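Hi support team,

I submitted a single chain yesterday and got back a structure, but I'm not sure I'm reading the token output correctly. Could someone confirm the output below corresponds to the sequence I sent? I've pasted both exactly as they appear in my results page.

Thanks,
R.
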Amino acid sequence: MARLADYFVLVGYDPGKRGSGDGQGQILQRFPEKDWEDNPFPQGIELFCQPSGWQLFPERNPPTFFVAVLTDINSERHYCACFTFWEAVESPQPQSHPRNGEGEEGEEEPSSPVQPAQLFAPKSLVLVSRLDHAEVFRNSLGLIYTIYVDGLSVSLENVIGNLLTCTIPITGGAQRTISLGAGDRQVIQTPINDSLPVSSCSVALLFRQLGITNVLFLFCAALTEHKILFLSSSYQRLTDACRALLALMFPLKYSFTYVPILPAQLLEVLSTPTPFIIGVHSIFQSETQELLDVVIADLDGGTVNVPECVHISLLPEPLLQQTREALSMVLDPELEVADLAFLPSTISASSLKMQDKEIRAVFLRLFAQLLQGYRWCLHIIRIHPEPVIRFHKAAFLGQRGLTEDDFLTKVLEGMAFAGFVTERGAPYRPIDLFDELVAYEVKRMRAEEGNKQKILRHIKELAEKLYKNENPYPAVTMHKVQKPTEGCHLRLHQKPFPRLDEGTVQWIIDQATAKLQTAPPAVKAEKKCMVPSGPPIAAILERNGNALANSARRLEVVRNCISYVFENKMLEAKKLFPAVLRAMKGRAARHCLTQELNLHVQQNRAVLDHQQFDFVIRMMNCCLQDCTAMDEHGIAAALLPLVTAFCRKLSPGITQFAYSCVQEHVVWTNIQFWEAMFYCDVQNHIRALYLDSNEENHAEEESTEEPQEAKSALEIASEQLRLWPTMSREKQQELIQKEESTVFSQAIHYANRMSYLLLPLDTSKNRLLRSSGLGDVESVSNSFVTNSIAGSVAESYDTESGFEDAESSDVANYVVRFINRFVDKVCTESGVTNEHLKGLHVMIPDIVQMHIETLDAVHRESKRLPPIQKPKLLRPNLLVGEECVMEGLRVCLMPDGREEAAGGSIGGPPLLPAEGAIFLTTYRIIFKGTPTDPLVGEQVVIRSFPIASLTKEKKISIQAQADPFLQEGLQLRSCTFQLLKIAFDEEVASDSAEIFRKHLHKLRYPQHVRGTFAFTVGQSPKQAMQPKAKEKNPSLRTLSKNLVKNAKKTIGRQYVTRKKYTPPAWEQRGSQHFPEDNEDEISVSEDMDRSTLTPSTTMRPSDKMTNAHVVERACCRDYQRLGLGTLSSSLTRSKNEPFRISTVNRMYAICRSYPGLLIVPQSIPDNTIQRISRCYRQNRFPVVCWRNSRTKAVLLRSGGLHGKGVVGLFKSQNAPTAGPSQTDSTSLEQEKYLQAVINSMPHYSDASGRNTLSGFTSAHMSSADFSDKRQQPKLGSLMKQVMGGKDEGPGTFSRGGKWGSIRASGRMSSYALNVEIGSRLAGKDLLGAQHNGTPAETTFLRQHRASLYIIGDKSQLKGVKPDPLQHWEVVPIEVFDVRQVKASFKKLMKACVPGCPSSDPSVAYLRSLEESEWLSQIHKILQISVLVVELLDTGSSVLVSLEDGWDITTQVVSLVQLLSDRYYRTLEGFRLLVEKEWLSFGHRFSHRGAQTLAGQSSGFAPIFLQFLDCVHQIHLQFPMEFEFSQYYLKFLSYHYISNRFRTFLLDSDYERIELGLLYEEKGERKSQQVHKSIWDYIDRINRKTPVFFNYMFAPEDGEVLRPYSNISNLKVWDYYTEETLSEGPSYDWELTQGQPEQVEEPDRQDTGAPQSKRRIIWPCYDNRSRVEPDAISRLLQELHNLKTELGHVQERWKETWDGVKASQRTEARQEGSRTPSSLLMSSGLSHHRRSLGVYLQESGVGSTLNLSLDSDTSSTSTPSSGKPGGRRSTSTLYSQFQTSESENRSYEGSLYKKGAFMKPWKPRWFVLDKTKHQLRYYDSRMDTECKGVIDLAEVESITPGTPTMGAPKTVDEKAFFDLKTTKRVYNFCAQDVQLAQQWIDRIQSCLSDA
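Hi R., thanks for writing in. Yes, this is the structure output for that exact sequence:
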């Protein structure tokens, strides 16, 4: 029960000091006169009775009533009900100038002498109460006034006494009727629950006055602690507005200054710095203008003014919007239906009181949504003696996902919320509407979101409850109170208010108190219960499903990665790692990480190895880096126990824990974080404390019950609080002590933890703990206890903030201070005793010091750690006999300029850089490793090349991707177009790298060919190669010496001393004059007289050297095939054969570099040959190497002529002899020799006249036209064909005669045009007119061709005047020398395999390709070869006599044979060609390939590679003419420099015999696995697999190939650019075997899933031909597999293939028409067999090979001629399976179409296809074969056309229209205008759709 009123006060006007304008109030009487003990009398009531100041008024005003609120020092509110009326004043003071309150007259002029007759002074009756019953107060004071005014016969003293003694229940919904003893009756209803505020209509009024938005502004301002000022001219309104605002804030209580009515004298309160809610009368509006940070609400004007400097945080969306909508539904229900046509009759707003409650219900819901789940973030630290509860703000914000939200953050930090926690945090207390709402209704509110009806229903339900709370008995509110008569205040002679008799009143009061004391105390039965917590936040905030699924996948990745780490599957973990780090952006993944790591901790410890430790640390750091200092999501909290659990052993007794590696995070320096963590742990321990004691007591009971959920700490606390009063004193003390010691022990624990995370690993380095500055901790802490120690520490810290340069102890001091401050704060809050607290302060410095010492040791050891474990080195597979010379050095393979492997523009995973090792074997340099990009970490990257192919090795420094410092590295370039750019790992010592380089050099350039891999294979070179050996081990050198010695012995006595012939340097050789003194050196190297040289002196015939052996050589077989002679004895030799096989060089005496058997004219004896040979360089005299079987023209080769020889050859017969007769005789013999060749040709005898090219001066032989000028129309036209012209008869210019790119740059001599002429040949027919344009006929055209053309080097033939009488013609041409080839090749390598990436790779590549001039050289070789082919084909013999006769000569001669003779285009023939022309005729493979130390200086010259490239170009143009595939050429290109086989070693047959190579293979072959000859190896592979076979091989008999040689026709060979990183080069067949099977397996694993035929093939990684073989290989493979399954005997693939071919042919014959597949096999194809039309569809399934071979016709596969048995063409077959026509044919019809230039109009059937976005046309409607397609993407415009010549006559002009594409304009014509318009529209719509 409580008193209704505490005091009754009568306040009157006090005239105040003379001279002041205003008077003062003065308490005239107060009752009771003594203060109540429980409630002292409030000061300053007189101010509040007249807030605007006490003044006199010139007339009586009606009485006023308002309630002012005073707050006392204990923040108790006192309600002062002021009832004011006016009384006449006797003698007014003339000095005072009364202010005019109501503004009826202006203020009097001071000069006015007139004084009013009478003035009136205010007098107030005041009730002071702690209860807010404004209506009762109004009635009671009104009653007293009525009694006084109307002079009722009731004692005022009685009434006042009764009023002061009236007691009413505070709450509980009681109803009390009271009477003050004047015949009155009032009913007082108390609210059911006093925690809910009472608002009557104030809230509704506030909204009426200000509107929704403004009130929301005020609401947010009040919650976020801004200053709020209400203005109004009504005091009651001010009180109501303030009360309304407080009611809206429920359940938070406003705890700052609250003055609904501020008196004038106290206006300076408005400049207080603290927040407030104050009401001021609007007459003081002017004084409020200068307040800068106050939100001013003008209730009368309905405005809210927010100053610029104030930022009010509004509610978070979507709550703000939802609240606005709900409020407008309540306040303006008509809004919903305002737009309806028929307005419902029923709608009307609720009564004001009800509306008030509805508005409050909206706000109550708002708070329930804002604070939902708050109880899950409460930490209960102490239960006894009274609960201490803290709110974990960060966790709450984090779980709600509102960490960024200003509003909620400010609210939670505010005082109101702190009070809320204190009041409502208690787990055991009475509960009210809000508790129920937040616990039980949140789910419902979530569910109803967006459904206005349901929301409104809920609001109304809540409003009912609120209304019921205020008016429990709505029906009975009948008051009966006398009111004064109307206008009574205007009575003139009104007695003043009488002085009351204090005694009477006091007596009444005493009576009542005495009665109360005897009465039993009314105990208010509080219904306490456990406060429900409601659903946890996570349960409320359901995320959207999609994000969840996505995150589930991420969590899976995180889990897998962690389990891989702990299972030590580091590669797997590494692969997932980037994904894990990316996932860490998400909260779920971070939680998952902490949970997963937790599982791996046993007994608070988890010892890891270094690599695991590294992974765990990196994950933790990544996890923490996104945590704010608040740690809203509790990530840092979850990691805190883990960082002290995970550790690694650094050395015995020294362990490094994870915390030393995760200190760099701001969260550790946030004291709030530590507090929250501390409280959380304390709560867990306290919970455990009570759980344990409970379990002991109730063990038996619980076992019988269902296992219940673990109780939360709050539940346990409420249980304890319920039991507390029933416990004994001792028990209570014991519990208090237990709790206190729990808190204390946690404080020690935390002091340790904080020192772990705050002290840096290297304590010598001072680091202030990041800039978050710990000095201002107090200002941000959400604690409410500030304590002096912490404060002083903070100050001292601030003063010392500049201590970066102080001693290390300062770090310690600083940490000690930080921990002290923390300990002070938490211990004071959680009630730790002072003794304990002091003990802690003593311990902390020791803890810190101890930790610093352990850290020093850890720091020392951690510095010694080896670098983190690298991936395991993968061993490469080696060939049989290949041995490792140096174990793998760990390196990183860096990306070079090729961008495919590094991801590059085509995309794909970056395979480089890759980590691995470099291995050096006797045969190769191999890198094997895995990409550093973990997404491709499983792929193995292999790059290797044979050591012999190394062309350049240079040291480089590489910036590795992670390390800032440069690493030393090597760049190794190989002429197999491979580049290894490696950076040595830091673990590789630099001397190891040096040893590697030395070994590499030793192996690359052995002393002798015997040292190459092909010879040493199988021998163990180990002892020579140990990297350890410091003294240089001499064994290798001695070994090779011995080998050489033995070789010499076996071969017989040699001139060991002789120097091997050394060709002169190229500079001299290529110079224009040919110095005579070089002669000796160039011809054979022995210094003895040539004439005396007999075979026996050079080589004794040993038993190996029988003729039989020589006959076995390949060239012999070939000569016999060509009919160039046999080796029968000279007696029976048929004289009529023009040529014979001479054994003159059997002992290699005449020419070292020629084979033993040579073809020479029959008529020339051997001794002549010996003499002739001296005229030629290297003694390489002309020999026949091929004869055209049709024209019998022969192809000869020789070295270039010496100077003397040249003169001799062209000296006219009658000229005076220039020198000794020997020269003459030689040149005569030479002439005889050539004549003999000419005589061998059958048509020579009938040639009439002398066959020369008269007038042929070298001046006219410009470098570019190296052939004879037009000699005869036929040859000329053929020559022109070579150059790409058309035969247009003699002497005319050719339109099509441009070729390649003829540059007049002069950079390469072959393209620099002759200076004398200087005109450019572009566009002119090369062989047509003379350069100056005069007809060439007269001078040059001869009727006859020469019988023999000598193609010679122009520089040698300088100044030679040809003799018109001779029968041969010399064609001087300019060729490039070896030096140019080398230079060009270097540039080509750099272009194809650049060392470093360029800015624009595609452009750079093409530019450098052009600069290399490689294709120009290919063009040149092809051009010469085609010329020679033409000459031979037209019956002239040709002698190719260029340079030394072993480089470009060999290239040309071989190509000529390849082009002219189809035999050489088979596998067997090509082998023979290479053996004969390249090996036997002494191409210097060892010298050109720089295979030994001797050749090191000369460098690598790829003459043979150039030849193979030419073959590749021809192969591309004639794909059906070659039996071997492109792969075969690549295989040879690779292995001719690899030194794996002995085939391409050494420079000539002679050297091979000398080493015993040539004939040894016979006996040894069986014994050894190692294949010494590449040909055997190829045969072996070819038997197994068709990889060398070209399925399109379908040769035509006797066809001579004439490839285009223009540069525009040449392609860069893909051998130069492609690589296979998955297995390295695919040319060592054993190493890459057995992989396709593995590739197949993954497809078969899960048969349930739909099988995808797709397989990803990376361009530079996979071997495409193996992973996805072409159709035929695939079919052969399938056949093979099926046969294996059926157990059939396997036949070789070749037999299968031949069988298929045979059956194809017979089918084709039966059907009489060719099917596309039979085209493949047949040989009678159209003559125009270039490659342009061949397409081999690489479908993995079917085997349709659609080869349209003729590029001129639109399609060769014509439908079969209507025969029933015939097959249809593929295209018709295809059209069956097309998707149904209708959907692809958007519009169709017939149109006339004008053909291309000069062609007629034709009707065609057109189909407009929207799907494919094209316009197709067919011959007729029924035609399935599309005749053409117009791609709509290319259409630029469509316009009406005009009829042109030949258009259909009958059609209207307007029916024509034109379609303009980017390529050409199509003219169409429809049948009539409408149709044309329709077509135009349809096409237009198609275009606009796109």
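A quick pointer for reading it: The mean pLDDT is 74. Let us know if anything else looks off.

Best,
Support desk
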